[in-house]
Amino acid sequence: MDQLDWIITVGKCALIAFILLQVVPLMVWVERRGSALMQNRLGPNRLGPLGLFQGIADAVKMLFKEDRIPGHVHALYYKLAPVVCLVPAFMTFAVIPFGSQITVGERVLNFQVADLNVGLLYVFSIASLGVYGIIMAGWSSNNKYALLGSLRSSAQMISYELSLGLSVIGILMIFSSVKLGDIARQQGEILLQLGPISIPKWGIFVQPLGFLIFMTSIFAETNRLPFDLPEGESEIVAGYHLEYGTMQFGLFMMAEYINMTVGAAMITTLYFGGWQLLPGMSAIHAHLGDLLALSDMAREWVRVGLEITSFTLKVVFFLWFFVWVRWTVPRFRYDQVMDLGWKVMLPLSLVNIFVTGVLIYYKVI
């Protein structure tokens, strides 16, 4: 890599980190306003229009509160645990493509921090490190409720990581690649032509069962309702982060929302075409190019802008879906969570692989 390549890579890293940091207060606001909307109440409405500045007030409060460490905890691991949860959440977004390529002069720009040839494996391997932070928090807190929460989390994540990994085998069989950029690119092909209507080869159409398993497992992996057993307020007070306050608790909250964003981006990339344009955007691209008499290079930048917009809208929808489910579906019992993971999700994942193999063999897909 030459110096310009390093500058571009660092710039992309800084941009992604900045955007992810903005997602956290926005999602806190969406969570609170969304739950208020569903429960026929107001929610935050004092600071700024529609309470938009409430997140800033909460962040300032957490930053300036006294950072008191309880005397009974294991101090080193107690401080380290939130960081171990947060860092993998940032790292996983590095291989997710949010746009296709564009050629500027002799240089090809990828709208992706790192175009790894093992991108999907990288996401799974790095994301699995987050559970160590939760286990570390529960153990180092020296509190029985925190320890129970961390044990629940480790068992839940191990149970659903198996189904999560198996659910994408069908995608790998169909697209023959573990590069997320290749998977997103191939979803631009036409699966079925029904007169004037074209059905794209999105993952949701070729792997509907795999999509359901993957999405359910993502809910379990991010500890969101109805799988928030590690926090279970009605049973274990607050679970693994019971002894945490101030900005250390804020880091756990940031990790959860960034993991939600990564999960929504993975669902978008694997099953909803990634940066492939939404219906109607191709016509907008052509119309804008003709209306403004744009040059070929300008048309390319408009195309990339629409691709990033399309990707963002899909991710935003799934982030809202996380909130919608949280305030709609009640929390499962712990035995129900384990039964679902081992007795339902795992067998269905294996059935999905078998059916996909049969359909590929007979050239149905």
Topology (elements, then pairings):
Layout: H1 3-38, H2 54-64, H3 75-91, E1 101-104, E2 107-110, H4 119-127, H5 130-140, H6 144-167, H7 169-175, H8 180-186, E3 190-194, E4 197-200, H9 203-206, H10 208-221, H11 233-236, H12 246-271, H13 281-291, H14 296-326, H15 334-361
Antiparallel strand pairs: 1-2, 3-4
Molecular structure report:
This protein folds into 2 domains: 1-64; 69-361, no CATH class. It is built from 15 helices and 4 strands. The chain has helices spanning 3-38, 54-64, 75-91, 119-127, 130-140, 144-167, 169-175, 180-186, 203-206, 208-221, 233-236, 246-271, 281-291, 296-326, 334-361, and strands at residues 101-104, 107-110, 190-194, 197-200. It has a two-stranded antiparallel sheet. The protein has a two-stranded antiparallel ribbon with strand order 3-4. A hairpin with a 2-residue loop joins β1 and β2 (107-110). α1 (3-38) crosses α12 (246-271). The mean pLDDT is 87.
Q: CA-to-CA gap between the ends?
A: 39 Å
Task: Report the C-alpha radius of gyration, rounded.
Answer: 22 Å
Strand coverage percent: under 5%
Strand order of the largest sheet: 1-2
Number of DSSP helical runs: 15
What letter string, H or E per element, gives the SSE order?
A: HHHEEHHHHHEEHHHHHHH
Please state the structural category.
Answer: mainly alpha
Mean pLDDT: 87
Which regions contain 5 or more consecutive residues with pLDDT less than 50?
none
Count structural domains. Answer: 2
Total strands: 4
Query: Share of helix among residues?
Result: 55-70%
| Molecular shape | globular
Major sheet, described briefly?
2 strands, antiparallel
